Amino acid sequence: MNKIAEIFASLDYGPAPESPEPALAWLAAHSGKFGQFINGKWTKPGKTFASDNPATNKKLADITDGTAADVDKAVKAARAAFPAWSALSGYERGKYLYAIARLVQKHSRLFSVLESMDNGKPIRESRDIDIPLVARHFYHHAGWAQHLDREFPGMAPYGVCGQIIPWNFPLLMLAWKIAPALAAGNTVVLKPAEFTSLTALLFAEIVEKAKLPPGVVNIITGEGGTGAALVNHPDVDKIAFTGSTEVGKIIRAATAGTGKGLSLELGGKSPYIVFDDADLDSAIEGLVDAIWFNQGQVCCAGSRLLVQESIEDRFIVKLKTRMATLRVGDPLDKAVDIGALVAQVQVERVRDLVKQGVAEGGQLYEPDIEMPKTGCFLKPALMTHVSPANSVVTEEIFGPVLVAMSFRTPEEAVALANNTKYGLASTVWTENINLALDIAPKIKAGVVWINGTNNFDAAVGFGGYKESGFGREGGKEGMGAYLKPAWEKTLKPFAAPKAEKATVALDNHDGIDQTAKMYIGGKQARPDSGYSRPVHGPGGELVGEVGDGNRKDIRNAVEAARAGLGWGTATAHSRAQILYFLGENLEYRSGEFAERIREQTGESVASAHKEVAASVERLFAFAGWADKYDGAVHNPPSHTIAIAMVEPIGVMGIVAPPSRPLLGAIALLAPALAMGNPVVLVPSEKSPLSVTDLYQVIETSDVPAGVVNIVTGTSASLAKTLAEHDGVDALWFAGDAATSTMVEKASIGNLKQTWTSRGLYYDLSDKQKFEGDYFLRRATQVKNVWVPYGA
Amino acid sequence: MTLRVVDTPAPTKPVKAVHPPARNPGFPLDLDWVGRVRMNRSALERRAGTIGSRRTVKKEWQAAWLLRAITLMDLTTLNSDDTPGRVERLCAKARHPLMREIVDGLGVGDLTIQPAAVCVYHAFVATAVKALEGTNIPVAAVSTAFPHGLAPMDTKLREIEESVAAGAKEIDIVIERHMVLNGDWQALYDQIKAFRKACGDAHIKTILGTGELATLNNVAKASLVCMLAGADFIKTSTGKEKVNATLPTSLAMIRMIRWFVEETGVEIGYKPAGGISSAKTALDYMALMKEELGTHWLQPHLFRFGASSLLTDIERQLEHNLTGHYAADYRIPMV
Question: ipTM of this predicted complex?
Answer without folding.
Answer: 0.94
